[in-house]
Design goal:
286 residues
Length: 286
């Protein structure tokens, strides 16, 4: 290749690097999301402390409201004590409160009893029955859905054992993960790590954009075709020169004969390369 083309700049972004860039992004994104979740947990913890302090203020307000109600009750008793003995006034007020509380409690108990259980038990049982028929067909034992039956008790026991085992396995995995990860990072460490990884992700995203840019890739391809054409031209010139020099000491007309044999494929290749370059330029301009 001639010296004027040896140092031609090539775009660093290449489609060949696209899989590696995508893998880097796929590795960084889950870690970034995990750190974002950890940061959210720390923020929620801080907000929980603030909410707890606010709740203490509300509790204090409710306490004083309770004292206000007590003061009103005392005022009512003292008001009745002007026309009757104080003990009788207090007894009447207490009886009135007792009646009101009893009526309210009875009403709530009746309504809760009517609403129990708080799940659509009949619908859930029907869905389980349908699923059992789909899985086992006529071999499905419907008594497993009836509370109190031996099959129901056995299934409940097996389910409880499976849940206990799953919970123990989850706790063991969580303990192992905590031991491998070490102490939990602080909020400042999470923020610094997130900022660093976010900068890395920004670079990866820009690199992906450059690799997926059709125009830049077409320009790189045009440059590569031009370089190859120049290299072929230089090689042909050198070869022709070598043929010319060898013809001086050998048989006359042999370079011309060689050129006559090869002019057709050279012309076809040059025409195809020119058409390809023109097509790529039109694509870039459009």
């Amino acid at each position: 290749m001639s010296g004027r083309h040896a140092g031609s700049a090539r775009p660093q972004a290449s489609l060949k690097a696209l899989p590696a860039t995508a893998r880097s992004a796929a590795q960084l994104l889950p870690r970034q999301i995990q750190d974002e979740i950890s940061l959210a947990q720390l923020e929620l913890k801080d907000k929980g402390v603030k909410v707890g302090i606010a709740s203490a203020g509300f509790v204090a307000a409710l306490l004083f409201i309770g004292l206000l109600v007590i003061a009103l009750v005392v005022a009512a008793i003292m008001g009745l004590a002007t026309v009757m003995p104080a003990w009788l006034a207090a007894l009447i007020v207490s009886a009135a409160f007792l009646v009101i509380a009893g009526i309210g409690g009875l009403f709530g108990f009746v309504k809760i009893k009517q609403a129990m259980p708080l799940v659509p038990a009949r619908t859930i049982r029907g869905i389980k029955h349908d699923l059992g028929i789909v899985k086992e067909g006529s071999a499905f034992d419907a008594s497993i859905l009836e509370p109190g039956s031996p099959a129901y008790e056995a299934a409940a026991k097996a389910k409880a054992e499976a849940q206990a085992k799953a919970k123990a396995d989850a706790e063991a995995k969580a303990e192992q993960k905590r031991a491998e990860e070490g102490p939990a990072p602080t909020q400042d460490q999470l923020l610094a790590r997130l900022a660093e990884r976010r900068e890395h992700l920004t670079g990866i995203r820009d690199e992906l954009g450059a690799q997926l840019d059709v125009k830049s890739q077409a320009q790189a391809l045009v440059t590569d075709v031009k370089d190859r054409a120049e290299a072929a031209k230089d090689a042909a010139q050198q070869r022709f020169a070598s043929f010319a020099s060898s013809s001086n000491g050998g048989e006359q007309g042999s370079p011309l004969q060689e050129l006559g044999r090869r002019w057709k494929p050279i012309a076809v290749a040059a025409a195809a390369g020119t058409a390809f370059v023109v097509l790529l330029r039109k694509l870039i301009k459009s």
